[in-house]
C-alpha cells in the first residue's frame, strides 16, 4: 500500500516531523501509543520511498519464538542499556559497520573501542565496537550464525556493563508477518 506522507528534518534540533497523510496511515494500520515504526529508505532520489516496519506494543502470539518481551522489558521502552536494530541489506554485507544508536553510545561510552560479547541463549559471539560507535569485526559471523535476514529486528540489552555482555533477542521477520 502507498501513502503520500511528507516529512521535514530540523538539523538544529535533530528532529524529524511527519505530516500529510500520516493520520490516514496511522488509522489504516491501527497504530497505538507505544507502537514503533521503522523507516527504511528505499530510494535516494526524491520523491523518497520508504519501507515501513511496524513493531506492535502488544504481542498477540503466545509462542516463545520470537522472544516475547515482558512489560518491564518491552523493546518500545528503551532504557539506558537497551536498543534495537532493524536488519537491512547493508547490515548483512561484508565488510560492514553497523551503527549503534548514538543515544546508546553516549550513555555507554565504556563500550567504545572494546570487544563485546553477544549472547543468544547459550551461544555467544565476540564483536568489536569501533571508536565511531559501530559494530564491525565479529558482526557478520553473528549475523550468519543467527540466520539474520532483512526485516529481522535485534534487541540488545547490556546486561553486564563491566564485562560488556549484551543479551540479544531476535524477532524474525517471517514470524511477525
From TrEMBL:
GO terms for cellular component: nucleus. Residues 1-58, 83-174 form the TF-B3 domain. Gene3D superfamilies: DNA-binding pseudobarrel domain. One of its GO terms (molecular function) is DNA binding. Pfam families: B3. The keyword Ribosomal protein does not apply. It comes from the Eukaryota. InterPro entries: B3_DNA-bd, DNA-bd_pseudobarrel_sf, REM16-like. The keyword Transcription regulation applies. Keywords: DNA-binding, Nucleus, Transcription, Transcription regulation. It is found in: Nucleus. This is TF-B3 domain-containing protein. It comes from Arachis hypogaea (Peanut).
Amino acid at each position: 500500500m502507498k501513502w503520500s506522507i511528507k516529512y521535514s528534518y530540523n538539523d538544529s534540533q535533530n528532529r524529524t516531523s511527519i505530516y500529510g497523510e500520516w493520520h490516514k496511515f496511522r488509522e489504516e494500520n491501527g497504530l497505538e501509543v507505544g507502537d514503533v515504526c521503522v523507516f527504511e529508505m528505499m530510494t535516494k532520489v526524491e520523491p523518497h520511498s520508504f519501507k515501513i516496519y511496524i513493531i506492535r506494543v502488544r504481542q498477540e502470539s503466545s509462542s516463545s519464538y520470537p522472544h516475547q518481551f515482558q512489560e518491564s522489558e518491552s523493546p518500545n521502552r528503551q532504557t539506558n542499556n537497551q536498543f534495537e536494530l532493524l536488519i537491512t541489506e547493508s547490515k548483512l554485507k561484508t565488510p560492514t559497520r553497523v551503527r549503534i544508536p548514538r543515544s546508546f553510545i553516549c550513555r555507554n561510552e565504556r563500550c567504545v573501542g572494546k570487544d563485546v560479547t553477544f549472547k543468544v541463549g547459550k551461544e555467544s559471539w565476540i564483536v568489536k565496537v569501533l571508536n565511531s560507535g559501530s559494530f564491525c569485526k565479529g558482526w557478520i559471523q553473528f549475523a550468519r550464525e543467527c540466520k539474520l535476514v532483512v526485516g529481522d529486528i535485534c534487541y540488545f540489552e547490556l546486561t553486564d556493563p563491566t564485562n560488556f555482555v549484551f543479551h540479544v533477542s531476535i524477532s524474525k521477520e517471517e514470524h511477525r508477518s
